[in-house]
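Figure 3 (text version): structure tokens given as input.
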């Protein structure tokens, strides 16, 4: 049986949502819900599924779609000075984030963990934050990270080790 976009998306949904949430940052999250971005990525995945060469690359392909969607959002919306996110307030809602393991405690716990992680990531050097996001959230290989950061694979491994150590200190583990 061939992998369908719906199955691939549902399989990687939690990973994609976490990546989108972390990459959006607090200012953009004031203006739009990460679930909305995720839904737009799902629509693109369904529409462009035929462009995926190999089903085993589905996760990386979906992550790339999400990164491109966020880049377009940041370019088109955040770049507009008239819509400065610092002047906007978050909309309070009692609706929980949709999840297979739904419930108020699960939703609150997930959000608390993501907030703590985001706060700790913001305290890191940009290169440490980037290498952690690429390696742990986007699941990129050291070779691909090295190509993107202009570093050797060994340098990526060393940088990731230092970055994770620094992150652990900020998380107080």
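Below: residues designed for each position.
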């Amino acid at each position: 049986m061939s992998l369908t976009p719906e199955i691939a998306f549902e399989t990687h949904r939690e990973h994609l949502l976490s990546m989108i949430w972390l990459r959006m940052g607090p200012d953009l999250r004031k203006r739009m819900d990460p679930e909305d971005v995720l839904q737009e990525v799902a629509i693109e995945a369904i529409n462009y599924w035929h462009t995926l060469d190999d089903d085993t690359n589905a996760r990386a392909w979906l992550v790339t779609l999400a990164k491109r969607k966020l880049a377009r959002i940041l370019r088109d919306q955040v770049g507009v000075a008239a819509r400065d996110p610092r002047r906007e307030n978050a909309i309070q809602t009692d609706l929980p984030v949709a999840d297979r393991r739904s419930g108020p405690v699960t939703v609150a716990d997930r959000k608390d963990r993501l907030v703590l992680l985001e706060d700790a990531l913001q305290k890191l050097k940009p290169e440490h934050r980037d290498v952690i996001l690429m390696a742990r959230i986007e699941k990129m290989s050291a070779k691909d990270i090295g190509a993107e950061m202009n570093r050797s694979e060994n340098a990526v491994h060393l940088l990731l080790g230092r970055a994770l150590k620094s992150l652990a200190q900020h998380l107080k583990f």
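Residues 93-99 have pLDDT under 50 and may be disordered.
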